[in-house]
Amino acid sequence: MAAVMPQHDRTPASDGQPYYRPVAGECELFEVAFRHRLPLLLKGPTGCGKTRFVAHMAARLGRPLYTVACHDDLTAADLSGRYLLQGGETRWVDGPLTRAVREGGICYLDEVVEARRDVTVVIHPLTDDRRVLPLERTGELLHAPPEFMLVVSYNPGYQHVLKNLKPSTRQRFVSMEFDFPPPEAEAEIVAAETGLSGERCAALVNLAARLRALKGRDLDEGVSTRLLVYCATLVQAGMRIDEAARYTLVEPLSDDPDVRAALGELVEMTFG
């Protein structure tokens, strides 16, 4: 039975630039790393804009983007490719990393620490001055063109002893730390994404700040900018803001009834 290739997104540059609001010179750093053929590591909490940032920059630079959501079962073969049975014949099929190298695109490995250890083995030769991808099964040695770029990301808050990046891997990348945008910028982002008024978006961002303050105590993770956009979308569609907050800023954060009740009280105090 043929193996299933990993799901990934290929975002062509012709689609235009996805909306992204720069915060602290991250676009300039990305462009410099791209021009000088340097791999890039993004660190930051879930839903703070890492994936949108990479999509924006790929379109801005006019390069095809291959995004791979890493997981426990992701192997090096899933990235590089494998032989598959197609139409009664066995044919080699490139994986997303190989396609990015061949096309001179950007390969983005999201949450790379979730992948199996052999994934780092296959990306190491692409992160130094060799910039090569060996395909042992086909006997090819692909030299990455100048336009190829490798970008990886992970959430340091979820790291533990069995899932982290070895120092020998981290030190192969230019590293950039992401966090949630400053309140005014985050309100601007939510308003731009949803069309909700700036005043109401500012109120949602204020609530998010209070909920994020609970991280490490009652919550494992704070409210993401993505969830704020979801909430504002529901409000813009006509839902009451307290109801929208319950569905997007309370229920997704915890399964514990007591924690959800406490979060609900915070929402009521904010919007009641």
Give structural notes.
Residues 39-173 form the ATPase dynein-related AAA domain. This is Nitric oxide reductase activation protein NorQ. Belongs to the CbbQ/NirQ/NorQ/GpvN family. By secondary structure, the chain is α/β, with parallel strands linked by helices. The protein folds into 2 domains: 8-177, 3-Layer(aba) Sandwich (Rossmann fold), CATH 3.40.50; 183-271. Helices cover 40% and strands 18% of the residues. The chain is built from 11 helices and 10 strands. It has helices at residues 26-35, 50-61, 76-80, 96-103, 118-123, 167-170, 183-194, 198-212, 225-236, 241-250, 257-271, and strands at residues 8-11, 40-43, 65-69, 81-86, 89-94, 106-110, 132-135, 140-143, 149-154, 174-177. A 6-stranded mixed beta sheet has the order 1-3-6-9-2-10. β7 and β8 form a beta hairpin. α8 runs antiparallel to α11 (257-271) and α9 runs antiparallel to α10 (241-250). The protein is elongated. The termini are far apart.
How are the SSEs placed, and which strands pair?
Blueprint: E1 8-11, H1 26-35, E2 40-43, H2 50-61, E3 65-69, H3 76-80, E4 81-86, E5 89-94, H4 96-103, E6 106-110, H5 118-123, E7 132-135, E8 140-143, E9 149-154, H6 167-170, E10 174-177, H7 183-194, H8 198-212, H9 225-236, H10 241-250, H11 257-271
Parallel strand pairs: 2-9, 2-10, 3-6, 6-9
Antiparallel strand pairs: 1-3, 4-5, 7-8
Helix pairs in contact: 7-8, 7-9, 8-11, 9-10, 10-11
CATH class of the largest domain: Alpha Beta
CATH topology of the largest domain: Rossmann fold
**How many beta strands in the DSSP annotation?**
10
Indicate the low-confidence ranges by residue numbers.
Answer: 1-15
Q: How many helical elements?
A: 11
CATH architecture type of the largest domain = 3-Layer(aba) Sandwich
Q: Strand order, biggest sheet?
A: 1-3-6-9-2-10
Radius of gyration: 21 Å
Measured between the Cα atoms of the first and last residue, the distance is: 57 Å
**Average pLDDT across residues?**
89
Characterize the overall form.
elongated
Sheet of most strands: 6 strands, mixed
Structural class comes to alpha/beta
The proportion of strand residues reads 15-25%
Keywords: ATP-binding, Nucleotide-binding
Pfam families: AAA_5 (PF07728), CbbQ_C (PF08406)
Organism: Thioalkalivibrio nitratireducens (strain DSM 14787 / UNIQEM 213 / ALEN2)
Family: Belongs to the CbbQ/NirQ/NorQ/GpvN family.
